[in-house]
Design a protein that fits this description.
Length: 222
């Protein structure tokens, strides 16, 4: 009798990208100062304040500081927390400097444009950022790049992230140009987390379908 062929490796050991990337808490953290800014600006303007942007900026910074303290107390890495707070302060500073409430979102818009460009370039030069991030989380450093199947999979999946930044810009830029502060706040609070979740959801099948049946999975580059 001939022995049964060895079973093919499966992807069952692979963690989902949502498990590796997380992001739900980060999306909530980033939304709190935005809601605070729009609420402070709107209420101050409705109450007849001569400086509604000041109230909005102050509310955003206070909310950002509150989130930072909470996350530090919860054991979050200080660098990530302080970076997030710095972004809020910068956005508030831009709005105060220009005197235009919608410019609170200008930092986010520029960041999205830069992110789309960087992600696209990373794919073209064969250093897809999704592979860099996931490989770093898994402790693989650059070993995944020596696996042509994984490299191709990360390149394919990274396009989903380029697309979500492009969609953000397509929504945010017209609202910013029209000075629609409330709609910008709503889009930033609802659309951005939804697009991140969708990117994670779409990236996983794009990555896995690039791997042959006998591939040992993303934890084990060949």
């Amino acid at each position: 009798m001939t022995p049964d062929p060895a079973p093919r490796a499966t992807h069952r050991e692979d963690p989902g990208l949502s498990e590796l990337l997380g992001g739900r808490a980060g999306a909530v953290d980033a939304s709190v100062p935005v809601v605070a800014f729009v609420a402070g600006w709107f209420v101050a303007g409705w109450a007849g304040s001569a400086y509604p942007i000041n109230w909005g900026a102050g509310a955003a910074i206070v909310a950002g500081a509150g989130v930072a303290v909470w996350r530090l107390a919860s054991g979050r890495k200080p660098r990530a927390v302080l970076f997030g707070l710095a972004g809020v302060v910068l956005a508030a500073g831009v709005a105060l400097a220009t005197g235009r409430a919608s410019d609170f979102f200008l930092v986010q818009i520029v960041s999205n444009a830069g992110s789309a460009l960087v992600w696209a370039i990373s794919i073209v030069v064969r250093w897809p950022l999704l592979g860099v991030i996931v490989g770093g989380v898994l402790g693989q450093r650059t070993r995944w790049r020596r696996d042509p199947d994984l490299l191709r999979g990360y390149q394919r999946a990274s396009w989903a992230w380029v697309a979500q930044y492009v969609v953000r810009l397509a929504v945010f830029l017209p609202l910013w140009a029209a000075d629609q502060v409330v709609l910008l706040g709503l889009a930033r609070t609802v659309l951005s987390p939804a697009l991140v979740a969708l990117s994670v959801l779409v990236s996983w099948p794009l990555l896995r379908t690039a791997l042959p049946d006998d591939h040992p999975g993303i934890r084990h580059p060949r």
